[in-house]
Amino acid sequence: MATAPLKKYELPPLPYAPDALEPHISKEQLSLHHDKHHQAYVTGANADLEKLEKARQEGTEVDMKALLKELSFNIGGHVLHDLFWPTMAPAGKGGGGTPGGALADLIDGEWGSFDRFKAEFTKTAASVEGSGWAALAYCTMTDRPMIMQIEKHNNHVYPTFRILMVLDVWEHAYYVDHRNNRAGFIEAFWNVANWDTVNKRLENL
Q: Is 168 annotated as a binding residue?
């Protein structure tokens, strides 16, 4: 029986000031997204873990199917947001432009050009059903990058693929700035995409 305190999830700080991504993402939008929505997934995941721990300590039963589904959702939300914040940087100060280095070579090798990659990624993000994410992932079995469309936080994920870049297209990511105009938010994202971070993730595979 475990007796020592078990580690829980924590909300990471933003890697920049809340107003640093303006005018492309407002301070109000970014603050609500990080402080409220991301925090909710952290809180939810920890509550799910505590339910499991309590049941183990008391020797009681829990609905494993329902609880693990909820835990997967909350952990997925936390992990993807944790990847999302560093994927952006202030425009002109690490954000925007086009990728260079190994990432540029990888994109050219798979898509032929950055413009083709950008078009496919944009369509992926725009067409996620309901709430979800677009992601650039890497398959170590084929040594190829692949675009992944994630519904919610945990559906249609390619198992074991390493995620290099994510774009959150839940309405909570853009409703303050764009209301229901997802396309407008996706276009704004390209102005703050942090290719240095994506390149570093590629180098650390």
A: yes
